[in-house]
Amino acid sequence: MTPLLDIQNLVVDFKGESGPTRAVDHVSFSVGRCETVGVVGESGSGKSVTSLSIMRLISEPPGRISEGSITFHESDGSSVNLLSLPPGKMRTYRGKRIGMIFQEPMTSLNPVFTCGDQVMEALLQHETKDKKEAKKRTLALFEKVKLPRPETIFDSYPHQISGGQKQRVMIAMAISCKPDLLIADEPTTALDVTVQKTILSLIKELQTEMGMGVIFITHDLGVVKDIADKVIVMYRGKIMEQGATSVLFERPQHPYTKGLLACRPPLTQRLNKLPTVADFMKVVQGIPEETGLDLQAVYRDWAEKPSGREAQQKKIYGQKPLLEIQDLNTWFPVNKSFWGKPKEWVKAVNGVNFNVYPGETLGLVGESGCGKTTLGRTLLKLQKAHSGKVLYEGNSILEMSDSEIRPLRKDLQIIFQDPYSSLNPRMTIGKAIEEPMHVHRLHEKRLRRDKVVELLERVGLGAEHYGRYPHEFSGGQRQRVGIARALAVEPRFIVCDESVSALDVSVQAQVLNLLNDLKQDFGLTYIFISHDLSVVKHMSDRMIVMNKGVIEEYGDAEEVYQNPKSAYTKSLIEAIPGV
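Structure (tokenized):
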């Protein structure tokens, strides 16, 4: 059967100060109608560059498609090489025939246009000239992707909605013209498990309805197993292995694929340390190829339960709380009177009470828009509270002036959810990490560069990255820069807001191990915000489940997962994609 899209020997190079870098190295694969091809691999493996090449969105310079062909086969039997089309003709394919859900919705949406206008633009360009019809279809799309209050979000600007809601607006835009091929680049990264399940079902439903081919790029192997017919494993621009999903997961052939499968935090047991691909490859080297490799044997090497957890927890909870949160409320006005007085509120955080103890990792999970990020930002006075108290070592943070809280900023840090918008595009990442050291007068000036390089190496980067700018990094690499910057001032308490959501499974394992090592070495305390329950369970001593601004469930992480008391928590656990 003729495929919908056929890629042959694709080569993409990027020109840099130190010479050309080959991002995609002779990649070949095809996508059939109604077929879902999953593309997996570590951050920087060339997954996104391959997808951007299909859309002809590689910036030239510095990028260049050096070799290969990308053939789009029409339903009437004709075909066209997308790489040979003039820009005007390519625009008739881009958006209409080939839709794309981009990796970072925070930076892909235009901040000066409402969400509704941006989806309508695609419809008015390709489908209809009637604005009323375009608005009606946009609202229907918002309902289809499960956005709350579609009318309100239609008139909202991107900064007024949550990260997960922005991702859903991007999905609505990509499917608005019912494309023949949908390229989904990390489409569920910012989504909680229940909405992720809904979106995956939606993509499958649209695929069946329209005979649409899907290229699904992700680092979440559980999602790939659930949705893909065929899987392609990429590493450093090359395809390591490809084949039917069931075969690849049950009998992976390449050691790299086996390593990726071993990295995800298992839900059935708590590990001392997560294996990274590098760790796994070391194990592989010691096993003769003909004997095969038992993944479970590797897991057993790593899976000893943390020794002395009960004694450790007794020590943690025998202390005075580091943070005390009392009846905290953070409300946002959504409807005002003629005189500007709020008539209606969105209660993002509504009457929340809990304590955080020194040396604890407190997990915070819930659906997108449940108030997780707002709560984390309110604790650090980055978001104004409506009422309530936040006590840090007995001192009320919310009552402090800006000058009074400034010295505390060294102790209280945050790793932001969006790694791109939290970095200055005009500042090298070395200077961005060094800046807080300068502000808080840490280390001698001549030693700061060495400290930055040390931090970069600890989060999986290197000295060669010091002078590079944020746009020169992949999404996962930028997230690591954000983590290094938060650690630069040697804090006591860190809010990790989706700090590993953009990372591939291997780097995620590395960063989670790093956060746990730093917690032990420096006595750090974390609030760990995530929509990934397997990660939260691995990291947390206790877990809070939030729903619509209130605490739904609160207790020991193991106990909450094994014996959930609320129907909401059960629904979150049931929606976790399994490997």
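The radius of gyration is 24 Å. The chain has 23 helices and 20 strands.
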